[in-house]
């Protein structure tokens, strides 16, 4: 790691003032930023430790879920209120990382985590996300884990979060504070696909701090689910995953919430598939049709071609689980 | 290691008391004992425990949160000590394998690992045991699948998993 200075913030205001300085970076759980610093991918001049801020709450009120930015993955996953109202969120968390990492990692850090693309993490290789204009090593390289949706000629890196997929599906909103006030951003609108600027991953500005996440009330989210396919049973990133909530009335789908993970450059809301399903019968044939629609824009890069049929099957299984 | 910063004061955080980049005094409370040390901010909790407090039971395997050999408890919760900074834990209660038991008075998990031969080379064992002690305190169901799932953050390259699970199951029943 490069040498850096360290400061502990005891108020949100102090954190924002310090975090807005050039070279400053917030640290919460540290599981992502320190890993990247060891690889020289990140080289902050000062780390602002925000762990002392009072941002750890986990509350379900009037059906809506509020998560403080510093709520830990393990605590959110263990919350019976979350398990009951938004099982897709609890499952996505439980199926992420390891118990140790879930005890450390914060919710805001999770949604901000950087890609696990090996080229992004290896400073000896080209990567447009880490070093704009240097090229993409994954395009013609080892790309089994890379994305098939939302890619560009400049970047095919997968967004690695599980819970962000569930949060995007459930219309989660980020609460952001800055030196002049605050703003809310719908999580789905927060992420930017790589396009020509893969180094710009979201709309967060320097000095802005995510202080919390709200998931609006959604009654039928009580039967939502999250399905994750991966190379081993635990402690592994998704090859393909799906977060789903369905409103079914007398065998007919009234509304659908669908997001895909492990296959896209950002947590991927499948709105076309949602619209396709609305009004259809809640049958496997409908789900298979929706899965075709969801992956219709998918493009494989050789080693990851298998993710397109895999993601369809994962989505069908999730839709069946959410309607069971 | 990285390149020294150009010029002092480049990395000051506005309005906050800043430490480093040079080494400064830090006191960590490990197994109930205060350990004072002089470390740079970039020193991980793992390196502080091993190299500065001299408690080498905690092991450095991958140093990137993949293997679990560095598992310690902070305020009773198991974490990877390689992915956190020593300076972040001045207010915390840190427990390492040295605080779990000793040769005269084994912790039930340690006794169960011996009874069930839950190790071969032993490198991952301190992390396995600290993780198991914390896992049992978390109140999970004590069945084979749950133990396998809840111990998945600790890798054993000798492949002693069946015996490790046996040991945790027994310790779980007696605890």
Describe this structure in words.
The complex is a heterodimer of chains A (324) and B (175). Chain A is α+β, with helices and mostly antiparallel strands. The longest helix of chain A is centred in the C-terminal third of the chain and has 17 residues, at 307-323. In chain A, β11 (252-261) and β12 (268-269) form a beta hairpin. Chain A is built from 13 helices and 12 strands. In chain B, strands 3-2-6-4-5 form a 5-stranded mixed beta sheet, with helices on both faces. Helix content of chain B is 29%, strand content 15%. Chain B has helices at residues 45-52, 108-115, 125-137, 144-150, 161-174; strands at residues 18-19, 24-30, 33-39, 71-74, 77-80, 93-95. Chain B is elongated, with a radius of gyration of 18 Å. Chain B has 175 residues and is an alpha+beta fold. In chain B, 47% of the residues are buried. Chain A binds chain B through residues 1-9, 14, 17-18, 20-21, 23-24, 27, 29-31, 34-35, 37-38, 40, 43, 45-49, 51, 74, 97-101, 103-104, 233-235, and chain B through 1-5, 10-22, 40-42, 44, 63-65, 68, 71, 77-80, 83-85, 87-88, 131, 134-135, 138, 148-150, 152-154.
């Amino acid at each position: 790691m490069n040498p850096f200075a360290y400061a502990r913030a005891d108020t949100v205001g102090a954190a924002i003032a310090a975090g807005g300085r050039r070279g400053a970076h917030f640290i919460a759980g540290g599981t992502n930023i320190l890993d990247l610093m060891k690889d020289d991918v990140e080289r902050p001049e000062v780390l602002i430790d925000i762990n002392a801020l009072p941002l750890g709450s986990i509350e379900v009120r009037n059906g809506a879920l509020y998560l403080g930015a510093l709520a830990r993955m393990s605590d959110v996953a263990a919350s019976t209120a979350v398990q009951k109202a938004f099982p897709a969120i609890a499952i996505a968390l439980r199926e992420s990382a390891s118990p140790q990492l879930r005890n450390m990692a914060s919710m805001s850090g999770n949604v901000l985590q950087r890609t696990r693309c090996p080229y992004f993490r290896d400073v000896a290789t080209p990567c447009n996300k880490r070093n704009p204009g240097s090229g993409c090593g994954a395009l013609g390289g080892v790309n089994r884990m890379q994305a098939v949706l939302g890619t560009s000629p400049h970047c095919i890196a997968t967004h690695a979060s599980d819970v962000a997929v569930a949060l995007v599906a459930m219309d989660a909103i980020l609460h952001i504070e800055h030196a002049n006030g605050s703003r809310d951003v719908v999580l789905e609108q927060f992420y930017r696909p790589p396009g020509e600027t893969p180094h710009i991953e979201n709309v967060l500005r320097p000095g802005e701090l995510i202080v919390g996440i709200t998931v609006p009330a959604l009654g039928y989210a009580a039967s939502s689910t999250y399905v994750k396919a991966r190379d081993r049973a635990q402690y592994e990133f998704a090859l393909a995953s799906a977060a789903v909530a369905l409103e079914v009335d007398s065998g007919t789908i009234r509304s659908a919430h669908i997001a895909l993970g492990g296959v896209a450059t950002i947590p991927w809301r499948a709105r076309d598939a949602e619209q396709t399903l609305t009004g259809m019968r809640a049958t496997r044939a409908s789900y298979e049709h929706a899965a075709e629609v969801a992956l219709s824009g998918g493009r494989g890069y050789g080693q990851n071609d298998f993710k397109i049929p895999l993601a369809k099957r994962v989505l069908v299984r999730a839709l069946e689980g959410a309607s069971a | 290691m990285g390149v020294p910063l150009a010029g002092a004061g480049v990395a000051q955080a506005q309005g906050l008391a800043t430490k480093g980049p040079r080494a400064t005094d830090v006191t960590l409370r490990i197994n109930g004992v205060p350990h004072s040390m002089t470390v740079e901010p970039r020193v991980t909790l793992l390196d502080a425990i091993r190299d500065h407090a001299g408690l080498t039971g905690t092991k450095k395997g991958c140093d990137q949160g993949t293997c679990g050999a560095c598992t310690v408890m902070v305020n009773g919760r198991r974490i990877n000590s390689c992915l956190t900074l020593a300076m972040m834990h001045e207010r915390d209660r840190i427990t390492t394998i040295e605080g779990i038991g000793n040769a005269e008075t084994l912790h039930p998990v340690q006794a169960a690992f011996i009874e069930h031969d839950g190790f071969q080379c032993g490198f991952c064992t301190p992390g396995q045991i600290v993780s198991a002690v914390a896992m049992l305190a978390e109140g999970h169901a004590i069945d084979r699948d749950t133990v396998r799932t809840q111990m998945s953050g600790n890798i054993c390259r000798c492949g002693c998993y069946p015996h490790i699970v046996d040991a945790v199951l027994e310790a779980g029943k007696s605890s």
